[in-house]
């Protein structure tokens, strides 16, 4: 295997600095994650939901941001070029975001009215542990 991959890998990564740069480029930041979101809100409620999502992303620490990205894409590093955001009108106990990591697509409920409730529901959902996608 060494003879097959050695030359192409040396061309891609001629130094340790180039490997570190690659990892740095894959590390999520608030701006990078917000820039991944692609949505076309059709009304005030959808616009509000998208604004709350971006506000939530901006409030995350580096570790929390990686966990959120893992939830949205299945990877804690930047492995996609976009996250499509569509909107649903679910409410009550049915108000749960649905994520399709193969796409990746987020079905975001548009029934949030305040950041406090958005943050509370998303924090509880992400902390619950049932979203673990790791294989032991």
UniProtKB/TrEMBL annotation:
The keyword Disulfide bond does not apply. Keywords: Ubl conjugation pathway. GO terms for molecular function: ubiquitin-protein transferase activity. Residues 31-118 form the HECT domain. InterPro entries: HECT_dom, Hect_E3_ubiquitin_ligase. It comes from the Eukaryota. This is HECT domain-containing protein. It comes from Holothuria leucospilota.
């Amino acid at each position: 295997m060494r003879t097959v991959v050695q030359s192409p890998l040396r061309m891609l990564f001629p130094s340790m600095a180039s490997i570190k740069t690659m990892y740095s480029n894959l590390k999520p930041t608030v701006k990078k994650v917000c820039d991944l979101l692609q949505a076309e809100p059709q009304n005030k409620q959808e616009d509000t939901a998208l604004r709350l999502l971006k506000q939530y992303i901006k409030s995350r620490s580096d570790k929390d941001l990686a966990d959120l990205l893992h939830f949205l894409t299945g990877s804690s590093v930047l492995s996609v070029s976009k996250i499509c955001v569509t909107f649903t009108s679910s409410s009550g106990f049915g108000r749960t975001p649905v994520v399709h990591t193969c796409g990746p697509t987020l079905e975001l409920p548009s029934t949030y009215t305040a950041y406090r409730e958005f943050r509370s529901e998303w924090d509880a959902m992400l902390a619950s542990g049932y979203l673990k996608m790791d294989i032991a």
